[in-house]
Amino acid sequence: MFKKLFMATAVLLLALPVVAAQARTIEIDGMDNLRFSEEVITVKPGETITIKLVNKSKIPAIAMSHNWVLMAADADVHAFDKAALKAGKDNGYLPKGMDDQVIAHTGMVGGGESDSVTFTAPKTPGDYEYICTFPGHFAAGMKGKLVVK
Ligand code: CU
């Protein structure tokens, strides 16, 4: 019993600094003016990144929620956003069957909530677009780019 506990603790202590050293956390606010607080994020190819999306809005979630969706380099972002609208609230405004167009995404968060996603940045340098798929937000300009270089 004690030996198991000791081993578990030892493993945790060994693992923690590695995780802390690898994943850089970038905090992004989703704002009421339908913008992300960070519209350009620069990362290294293959870097492990945690995106923490925060929604500080006081507007009800039904009217002002946000997510953060990083699109693949060859994704059709406009088609994806249209499909997201059709997918609706019950699917978190994420279309099914289009996973190949998404590199990473957070959940949809309402005011006072946050959600994080950890992923490996693409190894291919370039610009990768990210958007919010809540109805109307991408069209209004809620987007940004992840620059891999
Ligand atoms: Cu939004």
Walk me through the structure:
The protein is built from three helices and eight strands. It is of the alpha/beta class. A five-stranded mixed beta sheet has the order 2-8-7-4-5, with no helix packed on it. It has a three-stranded mixed beta sheet with strand order 1-3-6. The longest helix is centred in the first third of the chain and has 21 residues, at 2-22. The model has no long low-confidence stretch (mean pLDDT 91). Copper (II) ion binds next to loops.
Percentage of residues in DSSP E strands: 25-35%
Mean pLDDT, all residues: 91
Apparent shape: globular
The helix-strand sequence is HEEEEHEEEHE
Ends distance: 49 Å
Biggest pleated-sheet summary: 5 strands, mixed
Structural class: alpha/beta
Summed up, the helix count is: 3
Strand order of the largest sheet: 2-8-7-4-5
E-strand count? 8
Helical content stands at: 10-25%
Could you say which small molecules are bound to this protein? copper (II) ion
Radius of gyration: 17 Å
Describe the structure in brief:
The chain is α/β, with parallel strands linked by helices. It is built from three helices and eight strands, in the order αββββαβββαβ. The protein is 24% helix and 31% strand.
